Amino acid sequence: MAPSSTLPYITSHIYTVYLLFSTTLHLFLQIFLSLLSLPATLNTHLLHNGARYLEEHYHTPNAFALITGATDGIGRAFALELAERGWNIILHGRTQARIKPLLEHLRQKYPRQTFLPLPIDAANVRAGGISQALQELVPGVCVTLLINNAGALPPVRAFSGLSDEEVIDNVAVNVTFGALVVKALMNGWFGRRACVLGMGSVGAVMTLPGTPTYSGSKSFTRKFYACLRTQLSSPHPAFATPASSSPSTQLEILPILVGGVRTKMTPISEDGNIFFLTPQAFARHALAKVGLGREVYGYFWHEVQMWCITIWPEEGGMRGWVNKAMMRGVEKLRAEGWRRLSDGARMVDGRLVERGDGH
């Protein structure tokens, strides 16, 4: 009996030694690979001149940028930034009423540019609906920049407490709508050269509590753009461009991994936190990545933040422990922000403004 009773003890110690050795080896290799990729990281965030690339390759006369989810948060910040740079813009929003304030603001401030509304309910898009809405715009619209930004969190409560409609709508907004927008534009609306900025999320990399449908959707989005980019470069005849599409289009697929940005999704108003930036700042950082043609983090410190998680191995629960430790403080800040929003506060340019404030 004695040998058998000591077997679990011995096995446990052997596994502990194995975990210690494998974790150390994993960390060493990850740090070594990170050092090898350091030049590429510095080029991505410091040296690459995406603003110039955007102007030289995609900002052609009469070209349009189409921004989905343009009425608030990051999408609105992209619209303001591109308008400042002289772009014509198609503004997508759920309804004409939601688009109208931003549309009127841009038309008044930039009268020589063209701004068009594209009202489509992303949660209830039907087959052919996006193409039909595009056809109702002015003739000859040529899109050379798509910022596929529309996305939403489901109500913040237990997954079992969500209604079927809330789950279906959330997946439709985050998955189906974005894929259909890309497909519609590929069938004759893109210019000879065009770029797709697909807004992803660090939720596809780390585990975010309380957002199963959102994080799962962003995992789909990440793989969707990776597969689409590979398909576009494939010589296989099955992937040849159909006659209805624009065969001469050179399409850059640029998925952007988004971390903490101060919007209604992350209502944190805390100056001095390098991991949470305003939508306006994030839009500038993301546009600076145009021309790289691969998945990148939109902001340097978001990449550092995810590196601190992904450097750890899955086995043994180390990555999960680091993930939980990192999210613990964030969730407290988000919960406080959501409480203030429910009490009547508003997010204005990345800051929580209390009800009655004059801003």
Automatic annotation (TrEMBL):
<dbReference type="GO" id="GO:0005783">
    <property type="term" value="C:endoplasmic reticulum"/>
</dbReference>
<dbReference type="InterPro" id="IPR051019">
    <property type="entry name" value="VLCFA-Steroid_DH"/>
</dbReference>
<feature type="transmembrane region" description="Helical">
    <location>
        <begin position="15"/>
        <end position="38"/>
    </location>
</feature>
<keyword id="KW-0560">Oxidoreductase</keyword>
<comment type="similarity">
    <text>Belongs to the short-chain dehydrogenases/reductases (SDR) family.</text>
</comment>
<protein>
    <recommendedName>
        <fullName>NAD(P)-binding protein</fullName>
    </recommendedName>
</protein>
<dbReference type="InterPro" id="IPR002347">
    <property type="entry name" value="SDR_fam"/>
</dbReference>
<keyword id="KW-1133">Transmembrane helix</keyword>
<dbReference type="Pfam" id="PF00106">
    <property type="entry name" value="adh_short"/>
</dbReference>
<dbReference type="GO" id="GO:0016491">
    <property type="term" value="F:oxidoreductase activity"/>
</dbReference>
<keyword id="KW-0472">Membrane</keyword>
<keyword id="KW-0812">Transmembrane</keyword>
<dbReference type="InterPro" id="IPR036291">
    <property type="entry name" value="NAD(P)-bd_dom_sf"/>
</dbReference>
